[in-house]
Amino acid sequence: MQARGFNDGRELITFGGYCVSDWTSGYVADVEYTMGYFTELNPVRLPLGLLNAGYAPPKIQNACELGFGLGMSIAMHAASQPHVKWFGDDFNPDHVLFARWLNDAAGADAVLTDESFEQFCSRDDLPMFDMIGLHGIWSWVTPQNRDIIIDFINRKLNVGGVVYCSYNVMPGWAAAAPIRELLAMHARMTGGKGHGSAQKMDAALNFVTGMFDQEPAFLAANPQAKAKFEQMKTMPRGYLSHEYMNTSWYPMYFNQIAEIFGEAKLEFACSAAYHDAVEELHYSPAQQAWLNEIEDEAFRETMRDFMRNTQFRKDYWVKGGLALPQGEQVERIRDLRLVAMNTRAAIELKINTTRGEINLLPDIYEPILDVLADYRIHTLRDVEIAVQDKGIQFGQILQAVMLMSGIGNIGFAQSEAEIYAARPRTRKMNTGILNRAEHQDGINYLASPVTGGSMALGRIDQLFTQAWMAGMNEPPRLADHAFTALESRGQRVVVDGKPAETPEQSREQLGRAVENFLSKILPVLEGLEIAVRGKVSPVARKGGRS
C-alpha cells in the first residue's frame, strides 16, 4: 500500500473521532486511511495482463470495489468510465462521505455505501459483476469476513469475470512479523485509555526502540528485522496504524490464497504488477530454469515468492477464463491503445529489482519510447510498424510495454467514444479538485478521460494547472497565481524540507517549479486531457489521434 504525506501537516478533512467498537470488526477507524489511487483497479489496463496470459478479457459493465478506503480509485473510475456502473462499500462512514463528495463533484453515479461486508454482500439488489476489486483488504479482515467475500465472489461474479486482489504474503513478512506483533501487543496491553491509534503507535515504536537497545538475541538471529523497523519509523503514523495495529492481520503463502480462492471457482491469471512478467529482471537464468520445471501453478508462484522474498502481491484472478488461440491473442494485443504517462526525458532506462539495478537495452527501449513521445494515442501495432526498421520484434515490444506500464511510464487508452463520453465528468471533477487546491492540500490526483484513471499531481502543480487552464501562459503569471493562493492563507512553499522564510524565497522556488511543470508535466497532462482549455470537444487536439 502507498502513503502520501501533506507538506504543511494539515488534512483535507478530519476523519475519525471514533472509539474502536463492534462496527469496526477490530479494524483501526480513529485515524485517517492513506489517500491513494491504485491503477490496478482500473478496468482499462486489465486487457494487457489477461491477453499476455492467454485469456480473453471480459467486457466490464458492472464493477465493484470492496473496502475502498477514501474512495479515490472508485471515484476516479466512476468519473472517467461512464459506460461502467460502479458499486462500492467501506465500513467507515467518513470514508464514504468523502468518496461521495468526489463522486458528486464529477456528476458520476457510483453507488457507495457504509455497510458491513455481511450487510453489503447479502443485498439482493446488486447486479452480477464483471470485475470485483479488493485492494489492501484481504490480509486485514477477519476469517469470517474472508468467508463472506469468497461467498460473494462465488455468487456475484459473472463467468469470465475478474477479481483483483492485493495481500501481504510470506515468506517476505517472516522477518518483520514479530515486530508487527510487538507493536500490536504493546498497543493492546499498555496503550492508555483515551489515546488515539497514532499516539499508541508512537508509544509502541518507542518501546521497540528501547527493546532493540537491549541487544536481544532475537535481533542477532534476525538482523533484517532492525532494518525493517528503522524503515517503519519513517512512515506516516496513519499508515502504520492501519497496516500493523488491526486485530486481524494474516499474511499467507500464495498456495493458501489459491486454495481459498478456488472455493469461488477462481484461477490465477497473472500478476497485476505487469513488470513482474519480465522474468529476467527478477530471476537468474538458473532460477528461471528451476521454476519452469515446477508444473503446479500455485506451487510455482509460491516458489517465485521464495526466490524474491515477496512481501506484497497484486494479482488478477479469473472465473472460468476463456483461453485464446495464439493468433487472436497476438492481434488483440496489437490493437491495445497506448499513451505516454511520463515525459521522454524523465524516463530512465534502468530499474531496481531484487537482483539489483538492471540497465535496459537502449536499442530496444529508446525507439519505442520515441514513438510515444508525442503524447498521442498509438496502438501497439502502430509502435511495431514504426520501429520495424530497427529490427525490434513483437515480443520485445510487448516486453517493453509490460515493463514500462508496470512502473508507470506507459498507460492504456479507452476508445474514442469512451473518451468523448468521459470528458464532461472528468472536467467537472478536476475543476472541483483544482478549486479546492486554492484553499488546502490533500487531493493529489486528477482524472483522465483518456486512461479512464488518474494521474498524481501535487498541490503546487495543481495551482499551475489551474492557471494554465485559465489562459495564463507566461511562467511568471503561473508562479504568481500559486504564490497568491498560498500567501493569502499564510502558507509558503517548502524549500529543503522546511517552509520558505521569506516571500522572495518562496517566489524563487515557485519559479523553478514552474519551469519543471511546463517542460515535464504539462505535456503529459495535455496528452491525457487533464489540462484542457475551452469547451469540452469531441475533436482531439494536436491534429487528432492515431
Protein described:
With 546 residues, this protein is α/β, with parallel strands linked by helices. The chain is 45% helix and 13% strand. The strands form five sheets. It has a seven-stranded mixed beta sheet with strand order 3-2-1-4-5-7-6. Strands 11-8-12 form a three-stranded antiparallel beta sheet. Strands 9-10 form a two-stranded antiparallel sheet. The longest helix is centred in the C-terminal third of the chain and has 25 residues, at 503-527. The model is unreliable at 1-31 and 538-546 (pLDDT under 50).
Concise synopsis of the structure shown:
With 546 residues, the chain is an alpha/beta fold.
Structural features:
546 residues; alpha/beta; 7-stranded mixed sheet; 3-stranded antiparallel sheet; 16 strands; disordered N terminus
